[in-house]
Sequence to fold (202 residues):
Amino acid sequence: MENVTEETSNPFGMHVGGPAVYGYGDANADFQVVGDHPGRHGGVETGVPFTGSVAGVRLQRVLHGVGFTAASYADRPRLENCYVSYVHPGIPEGRDPSDASYADMERFLDAELRAINPHIILAVGDRALSYALREHTSLENKFPHDAAALHAEEVRGRGFLVVAVKDPDRWTPGDERALRERLEALLASDYRQTKGVATTIG
Fold:
């Protein structure tokens, strides 16, 4: 089923009860990028995930390289087949949200994933990877919750294919190249999964 909306910022009308950086992009995307929170990956000033930060500049460069964006960087990028959001969309008052706050905010990401129903989740950083492994695979205890160790690797999930992404602040040129090559390979394949079976065809 296709989402019928022209909105790219918070297309599903989420309200977390305070300042937040909501999901942004193509509401019918096959690829959903999930980061940590605005204080870590950007968007506090712009209101768009992965903007106004080193992480955003580096990640958008990869998204542009595989054709998801028209420009290598923009504060309000035009995303096609890609949606970006956070495990914790609320803007934290301190450096990082509490574990209780993360647990409370995950329901908004759960709702977004159900609405978009992407095929690929790009889990950026340890927090997003831990969420994806716990909630969308049966392999939580079989893989380290370490995005650097699994960078650009695929984990077969329950209805989703999860790709781990090292925190972009810590990328080397090789890390950027590895992620771009992984996405290019997925796009060149028939990556669309049978929901509930989670296999890559091709």
Notes: The CA atoms of residues 32 and 83 lie 5 Å apart.
